[in-house]
Amino acid sequence: MAPSRAARTALAGPGTAQGSVVTADSYRQAKESLREAVIRLGGEGRLRLPSETELSRDLGVSRATVRSVLQSLQKEGYIRRLHGQGTFINRHAMGIGPNLAEARAFVDLIAAWLGF
Question: Using CA atoms, how far apart are residues 71 and 36, in angstroms rounded to an integer?
Fold first, then answer.
């Protein structure tokens, strides 16, 4: 499923208008904007990012810069890139831990086995 227009617009972030020219530190600005967007979109339950072309347009930087930023975010564990499928937010990097309530029966089993 393709990301919604709202998801693409959310990537632009404050101070980055579509089609605007970004200063010499465009990589740093694009990376910060995309990192913030990943955190925000992940919190909203959106896990798929727009295409590199759309990100390039929305962030106002070249596609090569977007590719470099995505590669860096992948190394940091924020995203996963699957060839031919897209770029996805890594839920586990978002600090969303397992639901221990679901594991309660297992915990009770262990406690009973240990005699607690």
Answer: 16
